[in-house]
Amino acid sequence: MMVDTVHDIVLREMAPGELILVETIHATAFGRDEEARLPHAIVSAGYDVISVVAVDGDYFVGHALFTALDGAEKALALGPVAIVPDRQGEGIGARLVRYGLDLARQRGWRSVFVLGDPGFYGRLGFRANLAKGAIVPWAGPNFQAIELVPGALDGWSGVLVYPDAFGAGDEQD
Ligand SMILES: CC(C)(COP(=O)(O)OP(=O)(O)OC[C@H]1O[C@@H](n2cnc3c(N)ncnc32)[C@H](O)[C@@H]1OP(=O)(O)O)[C@@H](O)C(=O)NCCC(=O)NCCS
User: Fold this and answer.
1) Of all atoms in ligand 1, which is nearest to the CA of residue 116?
2) Residues with CB under 6 A from ligand 1
3) What's the gap in Å between 155 CA and the centre of ligand 1?
4) Smallest Cα–Cα separation from 72: which of 116, 124, 100, 113?
5) Ligand 1, closest atom to CA 62?
């Protein structure tokens, strides 16, 4: 657990009973249900995940989900990521993703893939060229990766297998 002394935001792993709160964050941030349903579908299917929340007092302000992928050694998919609308732009999303990346690194994960805006993920160290070897339906400039272990994706290429819940061709962030 990490307490941000500037904003009193606590960054920590999600507890199992908090899935419903997390769904609300995604539903309000994305304004639709697709991303909101993903965490429940993935967690209940028993995938290996890192699920992190940003909490301000009793108020859940952010969530990010990292899910194990098949096809690359110790690789995770990041998404969905969301911060509630009235708390966006305060730096919470960036800190929450960095917190999740640190936990992943400590636990031996080697790389993380994400589909999202390079304007946000590029600042966190994600690069499209690191994801170039991945064969996925959503390949392109918004599909990016970060190495948690230097060189983890060097020379790698292959099919990345996502949990069914992600749905081939759906936008995910
Ligand atoms: C995208 C999202 C998770 C970012 O979280 P946030 O807490 O608002 O972002 P931060 O305040 O940590 O922003 C970090 C930096 O990225 C930039 N940034 C944030 N969102 C961005 C976006 N969509 N595109 C480009 N840059 C973005 C910010 O300007 C900021 O830059 P700065 O450090 O120079 O000020 C959040 O705004 C959100 O939930 N949006 C709706 C849902 C969504 O689109 N999620 C998908 C993620 S791409």
Assistant:
1) 48
2) 29-30, 81-83, 88-94, 116-117, 119-120, 123, 173
3) 31
4) 113
5) 39
Q: How far apart are CA 96 and CA 134, in angstroms?
A: 25
Residue 147's SS3 state is strand
CATH assignment of 2-160, given 3.40.50.2300, 1.10.10.10, 3.40.630.30, 1.20.1070.10? 3.40.630.30
Instruction: Give dist(CA 169, CA 20) in Å, integer.
Output: 26
Query: How many of the other CB atoms lie within 10 Å of CB of 57?
Result: 9
Ligand 1 pocket, mutate which of 120, 138, 171, 173 (most atoms under 8 A from CB): 120
Per-residue pLDDT of the chain (173 residues; tens, 9 = 90+): 777 666 689 999 999 899 999 999 999 999 999 999 999 999 999 999 999 999 999 999 999 999 999 999 999 999 999 999 999 999 999 999 999 999 999 999 999 999 999 999 999 999 999 999 999 999 999 999 999 999 999 999 999 999 999 874 444 45
Q: Which residue has the least CA distance to atom 19 on ligand 1?
A: 120
User: Is-contact 166 38, C-beta < 8 A?
Assistant: yes
pTM: 0.93
